[in-house]
Amino acid sequence: MVDTHKAALRSLNGFRFDCGRVDFLIGANRALAEKLKQANIPHQYDEYDARHGEKRNLRLEQEVLPFFSRMLKFEEKK
């Protein structure tokens, strides 16, 4: 995915993902983070102590929503 979509990935205002260290998807997420790093594509990857789906609400509140708040641009209402 990274090799075939470099331009699109670089055009994003922000790209983040995370994974629990006990998640069955940890290997794939680490591999993706490494490919992005090697391709110099800006991203934020975090790991946390949990299984797949655990701490979802907490992560959304403390990590995901603040990230999008920083990355998204909103027009002010006139």
Topology:
Elements: H1 6-11, E1 16-20, H2 26-38, E2 44-48, H3 56-71
Parallel strand pairs: 1-2
Residue stretches low in confidence (pLDDT < 50, at least 5 long) are: none
Number of strands: 2
End-to-end distance? 41 Å
Would you tell me the overall average pLDDT? Answer: 92
How do the helices and strands follow one another from N- to C-terminus? HEHEH
- The percent range for helix content is 40-55%
| Rg calc | 14 Å
Q: Quickly count the helices.
A: 3
What this model shows, in words?
Helix content is 45%, strand content 13%. The chain is α+β, with helices and mostly antiparallel strands and 78 residues long. The protein has one domain (6-71). A two-stranded parallel sheet has the order 1-2. It is flat, with a radius of gyration of 14 Å. The model has no long low-confidence stretch (mean pLDDT 92).
Give a quick summary of the entry:
The chain has 78 residues and is α+β, with helices and mostly antiparallel strands. 45% of the residues lie in helices and 13% in strands.
Attribute tags:
78 residues; alpha+beta; two-stranded parallel sheet; 3 helices; 45% helix
